[in-house]
Amino acid sequence: MPTLASTLLLTLLMAVGLVFFLRAASKDRTTVVEVHSPRPALEVLEGLSAWLTSRGWRTETGDPERSLLRFRGEVGASTPLAVLLSLLGAVGAACLALVIRQLLPQLGWWPLLLALLGPAAGLLYRRRAERAETFELRLLDGDSALGSTLRLRAHRDELIAIETELGATLQLASDGRLLSSPI
Question: Is the pTM of this model over 0.85?
Answer without folding.
Answer: no
